[in-house]
Amino acid sequence: xxxxxxxxxGALEGVTEFLxxxxxxxxxxxxxxxxxxxxxxxxxxxxxxxxxxxxxVVVIYFQRLLRDxxxxxxxAAAFIxxxxxxxxxxxxxxxTLLSSHIVVLVALGVGGLALIxxxxxxxxxxxxxxxxxxxxxxxxxxxxGVIQAISIVPGVSRAAATIVGGMALGLSRxxxxxxxxxxxxxxxxxxxxxxxxxxxxxFSADNWPVLAVGFVTAFLFAWLSVRILLxxxxxxxxVLFGVYRVILVLLFLILVGx
Length: 258
Prior knowledge:
- The structure is a single chain.
- 75% of the residues lie in helices and 0% in strands.
- It starts with a helix and ends with a helix.
- The chain contains twelve helices and no strands.
């Protein structure tokens, strides 16, 4: 992989990590379009640059992470089931699911339709939704963590799973998006740390600068993405993201074909 490919993939990761459109799907599809060979390093690169995106959330919410322990405890309650499920299926995820573009496209399309249907059917009422994350019942937080684990399937989108799950459990749009951001911190740190622990020995000296470029690029684009999404959801639904997912699948089938 060269520096240009790393820059492109880092930008893709940063823009899409916190949007309900699946960063993993965009990275896998981007790799295919760029013609990158499927290697162990590329798989680990896809996972590792997510830390750059997560760092953007840590920077934006730094003061809150230090002070708001009521919310942190609820994030921990959501993280535990995600971590247990992730550990159980890690090998299957990396060796099978992460290599299947068909799985990605199906999950991306079905997830897009699910977002559209969910928004159109639930008749969501913001004024009656729970907006205080510090008062979120622990059982709801844990259930959101279980729902998030569905995103182990590439193309589902961790953000989409937590957003839909949280809204179904009565959280306001702003609250569920912020909870999704905060839950991403331990989830992706654990996933990336575990993967690097298992595969860092496979990296050559030339790989680390390429990884660094992707990491920094992901951070910068994620910082912008988080800011924009927080403003967008104030007056908009997630239907647009669902439509985008379906269109992306159709375009990819037309341009690349299967």
